[in-house]
Amino acid sequence: MTASEVVGVEVLPAALAGLRRRHPEIAIELVLSNRAQDLLLREADIAVRMTPPQQAQLIARPVGAIEIGLFAAPAYLAEHGEPAAIEDLDHHCLIGFDRPTAFQREAAKRMPGLTREGFGLRSDSDLVQLALLRAGAGIGFCQLPLARRDGLRRILPEHYALRLDTWITMHEDLRHNPACKAVFGALVEGMRRHAGDVSSGGCPP
């Protein structure tokens, strides 16, 4: 199965631990990549996606929208103050990407004033950016559920908010595979809990 770096490290371990307790016979290979693995080419069997799947041959279950915003650690704000307006960000250390992906370029259009040149700390690893944010190195982007868990403070939410619809996807040929069905259900349950949507069960139809 495949997921993004942040989801794979910060969200899925708890779901997979529970799955292994219930199904110790299932072996799982977890591939972390911010590149979408092609399920039709069987680069992976199951994927956590932040975009709706386009291929008709895939089973897809929505698990809710995960909000992303701009955050900082309390220690950083205690030392540098809290920005009250977009222009105040010019006086802060911003954490962001070095080489933007297509998604980041599109998201930047809705996030005023955030460009590569404006980032004082740059990395193409989302995990590195998150670690810098937690360490109080600057202001950066984070998923709202993770920020709440870590006690991060939100910055300018009226200007910086992006909701990502999230899906669990699987090739339809695996619909009746017991192991894949169990993993699919565990991921739906775990991601819905993370996104705050626990309205229904997770097994594929």
UniProtKB/TrEMBL annotation:
<protein>
    <submittedName>
        <fullName>Transcriptional regulator</fullName>
    </submittedName>
</protein>
<dbReference type="InterPro" id="IPR058163">
    <property type="entry name" value="LysR-type_TF_proteobact-type"/>
</dbReference>
<dbReference type="GO" id="GO:0006351">
    <property type="term" value="P:DNA-templated transcription"/>
</dbReference>
<dbReference type="GO" id="GO:0003700">
    <property type="term" value="F:DNA-binding transcription factor activity"/>
</dbReference>
<comment type="similarity">
    <text>Belongs to the LysR transcriptional regulatory family.</text>
</comment>
<dbReference type="GO" id="GO:0043565">
    <property type="term" value="F:sequence-specific DNA binding"/>
</dbReference>
<feature type="domain" description="LysR substrate-binding">
    <location>
        <begin position="2"/>
        <end position="191"/>
    </location>
</feature>
<dbReference type="Pfam" id="PF03466">
    <property type="entry name" value="LysR_substrate"/>
</dbReference>
<dbReference type="InterPro" id="IPR005119">
    <property type="entry name" value="LysR_subst-bd"/>
</dbReference>
